Amino acid sequence: MTKLFRKFRQNILFEGKNGRYLKYAFGEVILVVIGILIALQINNWNENRKNRILEKEILTELIATAKSNHESLLKGLESWESTTKSLNLIMQVIDQRLPYADSLAGYFKEAHRKRGNNLNGLNFSGYKSLENRGYHLVRNPELRKEIINLFEQRLSRLSSTNNQVDIDNSSFHYEYIAKNFRLGDKGHIPHSYQSLLDDPFYYSILKGLETSLDRKINRVYGFLTNNKQFLELLETELSVLD
Asked: For residue 101, what pLDDT is reported?
């Protein structure tokens, strides 16, 4: 085809038909431009197709990440609410100065238990994948904003709450417990129950832990509500891409 056009052009020049040659040259330029535009269009279409495939992959990863965090936090709530009940029961026993019962050992151990692991192990894999590949892959600007807000702000607030609980534990919790209780697999038994009832410092430990744990539980419930709405947004967006 190229040889045919070249031969045709040479014949026009040889015959001295300049006007006809100019028309031909102009037409050839138009064909070249159209070819370039078509090639660019095909290239853009391929790039868009690749980006849509990547977007679906990222949204799928984000859904898996959000579900993983949701399940982890629900398990954490069961543990933290159990600890809160034990704290409240022990404070009630102290307030009413009730006599010691063997069953209290289990409640003491539950109230003294370490907590926070469910927040320390939160999943960020889907968000890290988006961060590495580029936020632009999520075309919906509102969804993109919500993704960043959820992982960068709301999860950060949860983390700060968890750190505060750890501070409460480390500052005066375990040293006191180790000194004043016999620690066993089935419970924590006070060396002197009467001294415990009369010790306002121990009561302040329990109250401080209850306050910080309640704050943590409330924030987790708030996050779970946001996370549920976030999952619905992701699933809706993914259904549009299918």
From this structure: 95
